[in-house]
Amino acid sequence: MWAVYKKELKTYFLSPIGYIAIGIFMLMYSIFFYLTTILLGSVDMGNLYYATARYGLLLIVPLLTMRMFSEERKNGTEQLLLTSPRSVTSIVLGKFLAAASVIVITLILSIIYSIIISFFGNINVPTIIATMFGFLLVAMAAISIGTLASSITENQIIAAIITIVALVAPWFLVDISKIFSSIDLIDKFMKFPYGLISISDVISLISITVMCLLITIVLIKRRKAVK
Fold first, then answer.
1. Percent of the chain beyond pLDDT 70?
2. Rounded Cα gap, residues 142 and 179, in angstroms
3. Each residue of 153-171: pLDDT tens digit?
4. CA 197/CA 37 separation, integer angstroms
5. Which end of the chain has fewer CB atoms surrounding its CB within 10 Å, N or C?
6. What CA–CA distance (Å, rounded) separates 187 from 20?
7. Could you give the CA distance from residue 85 to residue 51 in angstroms, rounded to a whole number?
8. With pLDDT > 90 as the criterion, what percentage of the chain qualifies?
């Protein structure tokens, strides 16, 4: 798993993808920092992370995940990957953790905004930690959805579109039925910016992540068996 992880992480930063993802994140973070904090004269960072999670991840996650398996299938290298000594589980987890690591890097960089705010007022450190924890859980769930999308098509653009639709659709479907709130990642993030860590939300986000990764593993194992 770690060999795949290191290979994928290097791929992100030996190509423009990792830098573009971090650049987009920091650009959107800066825009929302101005709109939700500077413009309002507030030291509350909750709205900043909420807005970035809601809109920033829609751009960053598809960018990080669309090539995971789609590129392997399109280039015909998937068979080499699947016949390697590494298990399908280790391959999926390695790719997933590499994408999640890029998000962790962006979160670490976002601390600079907390430092800036600290010069103008007292910041609630436990609340920021809780918010960042929730942000990471949402990002990991979104990445798992993107990983699954990438595993079912060899077209990277289609994989990206599937990911975006899967993330956005619950926002509107919840108006039809409250049952769709169970798959709305942003709805499960609502309490974190207030410093509240809901066990049910944490379990739900982890469950979505695990479920999508398990489905990805099963699909790839079936494809491997067929080939």
1. 93
2. 19
3. 888 999 999 999 999 998 8
4. 23
5. C
6. 27
7. 42
8. 50
Q: Which residue has the tokens 């999670």?
A: 53
Structure tokens at 33: 């920092």
Mean pLDDT on 50-55: 91
Q: Could you identify the residue written with the tokens 């990471």?
A: 136
Residue 122 tokens, joined: 């007292």
Tokens linked to 62: 């598809």
Q: Which of 192, 95, 94 is nearest to 137 (CA)?
A: 192
Torsion sign across C-alpha atoms 153, 159, 161, 167: positive
Indicate the pLDDT class of residue 76, thresholds 50, 70 and 90: low
pLDDT band for 103, please (50, 70, 90 cuts): very high
Q: Is 124 exposed, middle or buried (0-12, 13-18, 19+ CB in 10 A)?
A: middle
Cα of 19 vs its chain's centroid, Å: 16
Max Cα-Cα span within the chain: 61
Question: Residue with structure tokens 């280039």?
Answer: 75
3-state helix, strand, coil in the chain (%, to 5): 80, 0, 20
Q: φ, ψ for residue 122 (rounded to 5)?
A: -80, 130
Query: Radius of gyration (Cα) for the chain, nearest Å?
Result: 18
Q: What angle do CA 167, 185, 138 make, to 5 degrees?
A: 105
Amino acid at 221: K
Q: Which residues of 60-88 are buried (b: 16+ CB within 10 A; e: fewer)?
A: bbbbbbbbbbbbbbeeeebeebbeeeeeb
